[in-house]
Amino acid sequence: MLYHVRMEVHPPTHLPPAEFDRLKAEEKAQAQALQESGRWVHLWRIAGQYANISVFDVADHDELHAILSSLPLFPFMSVAVTPLARHPSAI
Ligand SMILES: O=C(O)CC1=CCC(=O)O1
């Protein structure tokens, strides 16, 4: 199943910057591994925002939730998920 996901990062004020940088590096490594596995299909920065638009190709809602909630930045993100169905006019 395909999912459109919008993630907005809200950097914590209570964490030392070096700790947040460490979480960002872990997030990058995990995101790149998921892209290489084919499950994180698109990852785009929303221009002018600390947010991204992503497309995931995973088995179901449960797998998507497991992936999103395992991301190192998950505690500092708001996430909006839109399941995608095939459009009848799509070629
Ligand atoms: O910077 C972001 O939008 C959050 C994020 C998702 C994957 C990644 O590497 O950073």
From TrEMBL:
SUPFAM superfamilies to which the protein is assigned, alphabetical: Dimeric alpha+beta barrel (SSF54909)
EC number(s) on file: 5.3.3.4
Catalytic activity: (S)-muconolactone = (4,5-dihydro-5-oxofuran-2-yl)-acetate
UniProtKB keywords: Aromatic hydrocarbons catabolism, Isomerase
InterPro entries per UniProt: Dimeric_a/b-barrel, MLI_dom, Muconolactone_d_Isoase
Pathway given in the UniProt record: Aromatic compound metabolism; beta-ketoadipate pathway; 5-oxo-4,5-dihydro-2-furylacetate from catechol: step 3/3
Broad class of enzyme this protein falls into: isomerase
Family listed: Belongs to the muconolactone Delta-isomerase family.
Complex and partners: Homodecamer.
Name of the protein in question: Muconolactone Delta-isomerase
